[in-house]
């Protein structure tokens, strides 16, 4: 029999308790949606539970995981579609116990997935990627159920379903904004800022004076609020995306400079002595030793900058822009109380930002595969 | 100061003092030594007696604070710029982003050897240190002893007449050590290289060397220089011969004398 941790046992118990409170609910007119799923799933859940409790199995199949998944497939759609039926009334208590049980089951599933060592490589990989997905979906589920079940005003927090509908219906606008802000301002500014930071770091490599002088200046500029810089850049470079590029360059330049400078200094004295014994030139030492050793630092800056660039470009648009752009849209739609559009824009920004960060992180893994932090993380 | 033309390393009254935060540290004082072309010189002495420091002075990684030293008849700096020595550090110092092959290729790339020549040299030196088949591995995938052997291969890959080796076999087991000792002697015999070799093992020093330099600490200095009378042809079992044992006991006495001075 599989040994469960006390947390896992607790979660199983919560879900078990829900059974007693839920089945009376099925008979009420409150529920709509595929309620028969709950009955169809019941035997499967019981079978899986019984299976997972059997002793002395040589190769335990993930029966408890299947039971949890079956439970979620049965009850999550019911709880979601029932939300329409409540109208302006508050849902009954046993509705909320079912919601709690769904969250507990999702949590249990994640606990199981992340604590077991699956023998099959594919199952292990699936579990590795499923865990964050389940977590994200649980957050969305809770968000939807709470905002609609508790009748939270849409202006305060619209439910995800509403944001999604808005997103689907405004794709052309969102795409135009995305092009303006992300593809033009963010990408250009990021490439320019990071590229310049890198080149300047190498240019001042042989001048300790410049390094000592520029680094405090870098800290100073990093502390400058975007809010202050953005309007000035708009005055200098005009309303269009060029002024946003300037803001992004200012924000990304110094993190890159500082990290590259410390990365270039990160080689051990023995590694440098080795190059000295070969009478290697400064350039050879740079290319064959100091740059490879600096990659982890440089990628650190690239990752920090990927988020900074997006923030910078969006905030800069609050201070003057043509009638397109993510920051422009957010500021005008907030004024019109169209919060669903604001959230749709935020969703686009979040997805674009995460994807950007993720791509940089993937490249980092490929380039700095030798670094202990990457080597040790390679368990899957 | 007279320097014979065959002298590869010649130190006269050499001294080196490190200025540290806790005051000056006398790492070397009054070192007089001549290493001739084709010599195999071992440096032996207690930890901290300046063996590494002396090798680093020869390699121009450290500047002496007094006295004079020439390497290949020139200053250590010119010798370094002429790429006239290969250095094996006390630790392997392989670059983790390069495979073993690529690590060995590093000096070859810097010195501009052709790709075909690089390949041939990598294969030859990997074979020499018994690492054939490990060329595509990364340093962190190998044991400490294998890494150390790879670093020896790297120093042997290019044609330097002088080899400076700082405890190269310290991390190896007895059998591999014997094998590499033999290989090193063969290589030395075949190529007529000059080798400066730091070790803590008396048998190793006696087995390999034509000249054994006994050093003692605080301040680091040379207490005895023993010329070996062993023939150039040295099978492993020469280590049981009376001649060998006699030299070994002389080295041991020299070491003891250095230690008692300390107490
Ligand atoms: N960079 C340095 N700064 C200050 N002191 C140093 C430095 N390098 C070496 N020393 C000192 O010089 C002395 C000789 O050191 P060295 O490394 O040459 O010893 P060693 O004979 O090689 O010892 P071991 O057998 O342990 O390797 C030691 O007392 C050491 O503390
Ligand atoms: Mg040493």
TrEMBL record, chain A:
What would be one Pfam family of this protein? BPD_transp_1
Topology versus the membrane, per the UniProt entry? Multi-pass membrane protein
Highest taxon, organism lineage? Bacteria
CDD domains tied to this protein: TM_PBP2
Query: Transport among the record's keywords?
Result: yes
- Give the keywords, sorted: Cell membrane, Membrane, Transmembrane, Transmembrane helix, Transport
The entry's localization annotation reads: Cell membrane
Transmembrane annotation, as ranges = 37-54, 66-87, 93-110, 122-143, 182-204, 216-239, 245-266, 308-330, 342-363
Residues covered by the ABC transmembrane type-1 domain: 195-367
Q: Is the keyword Magnesium assigned to this protein?
A: no
Write the protein's name.
NitT/TauT family transport system permease protein
TrEMBL record, chain B:
Task: List, alphabetically, the PROSITE patterns matched.
Answer: ABC_TRANSPORTER_1, ABC_TRANSPORTER_2
Give UniProt keywords alphabetically.
ATP-binding, Nucleotide-binding, Transport
Is Amino-acid biosynthesis among this UniProt entry's keywords?
A: no
Question: Family per UniProt?
Answer: Belongs to the ABC transporter superfamily.
Q: What is this protein called?
A: NitT/TauT family transport system ATP-binding protein
Q: Which Gene3D superfamilies match?
A: P-loop containing nucleotide triphosphate hydrolases
Q: Which SUPFAM superfamilies match?
A: P-loop containing nucleoside triphosphate hydrolases (SSF52540)
Q: Which SMART domains match?
A: AAA
Kindly list the GO molecular function terms attached to this UniProt entry. ATP binding
Looking at the record, the residues that make up the ABC transporter domain are 9-242
Source taxonomy: Bacteria, Pseudomonadati, Pseudomonadota, Alphaproteobacteria, Hyphomicrobiales
| Coiled coil location | none
InterPro entries xrefs: AAA+_ATPase (IPR003593), ABC_transporter-like_ATP-bd (IPR003439), ABC_transporter-like_CS (IPR017871), ABC_transporter_ATP-bind (IPR050166), P-loop_NTPase (IPR027417)
